[in-house]
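Hi everyone, sorry if this is the wrong subforum. Our group has a chain we'd like a structural model of before ordering constructs, and none of us has done structure prediction before. Sequence below.
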Amino acid sequence: MSYTATVTSKSMVTIPSKIRRKYNIKEGMKVKFVESETGVLMIPIPKLEDLRGIDSRHAPLLIKAIKELELEHREEAKR
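Answer:
Right subforum, don't worry. Here is the predicted structure as tokens:
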């Protein structure tokens, strides 16, 4: 799907509402522009507060990995 926007005299572009909603782009958010061979990509950068709890479904796996790393470090420290 594609959308068209017009660049203003001040080099500003309005992001279409469907795109803003789909990617949860809110007022005050930053976006990163990345050049590629085919064009320019715009990547929304979420605020740190918006990422809170994003890993909750992976919590058991993360806890297991942390415990394994701690055990590894303890064993290395004994040597």
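For your construct planning: Residues 17-78 form one domain. The beta strands are 30-36, 39-45.
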